[in-house]
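User: Show me a protein chain along with its predicted structure.
Assistant: Here is one chain, sequence first, then structure tokens.
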Amino acid sequence: MLRETVSFGRIAGIRVGAHWSALVTLALFILLLGQSLVSAFGGSVNVWLIAAMGAVGLLVSLLLHEIAHSVLARRADIQVDGVVLWLLGGVSELADEPKDARSDLRIALAGPLTSLLLAIGFFSVAGILGDAAGEAVLHTLMWLATMNLLLAVFNLLPGAPLDGGRVLRALVWRSTGDRLRAATIAARSGRILGLFLLALGAAELILVGNPGGIWLMLLGWFLYSAANAELTTAGLRHQLGDIVIRDVMTSHPVAIPMSWSVAELLRSPEMRTDHRVFPVVDAAGQPVAVLSWSDLTALPVHSREQTSVHAVARPLPAAAKVPEDRSLSDVAARVVLRPHIDIIAAVDQQGRLTGVVTATDVALACHRSTLGLPVRGSERNGSAVGEL
């Protein structure tokens, strides 16, 4: 999950923000549009101000594209964690996958259709204003219309994780009834598309000498990597099936109060266990962080009395705090669990910790499910927390 650097608040009830890398995209848009305006109308402060406004307008267009996905997802009863702008555009963070092919298709098409409507809108505004707007402004409006049209067309290319890949997945899913096959086909198509863009960008850079090829190569690499991740996720979903968090979690795990000092923790009975990672809870019993041995060993000995557990623990991502009845495959697909470092925290309706799931628990569930065995070999409790 991509973490926002700056929050813009909420739009249509959806949290919206930007990663710092979006500044690079903004600068690139300003440069591209500014050079076009300067070559046509000469260089001036006003020209570059118009270029900056046009670049911001394109970022807003990207934001609206992603918000459209999120709005349709919420209508399909899918939790949306937020929308984040970053280096290569925007991303909608959905907590779950669509439950049926129809919802999948509608959510996927919402973004490109929004970009198409924006393109029509900018074309229309340019036509209505005419010469009254000034040549530089008209040029910028036409640029925004063209970029939104290209955004709609590019996103409809049939390869995951692009919207076109989602459309392909939905159509195959709807025609075959096989979600795994649909996801696999879309992901493999995305890998081919990513390799094609990598080759095209390299050819543009080497044969033509256009530095814009670097951007294409970066985009191709991202698509190829993301498609590989989706292929892995599809296999993970297949292996885990209908298993929920409650099926594999360790109930009543050893939890560390965030108010303790590191010295208090090291003197406590909790340190006599064989656990390797611990959930950290607040006064209400809600998980707020995760603590591993490596976090403790990195702290100098003389600082242990004055340093709180909360200060050295790593914040627990919101996506890693889930109800016990949440599908394990949905959560595992969104939360990267590093062995002996991360956890998924199961919580009750009040947000209090009720159990934990580790990377070992997920791997064991995959193996046992593949072999046709029960997910649990035996009951576990807080005194035997898997590989904690």
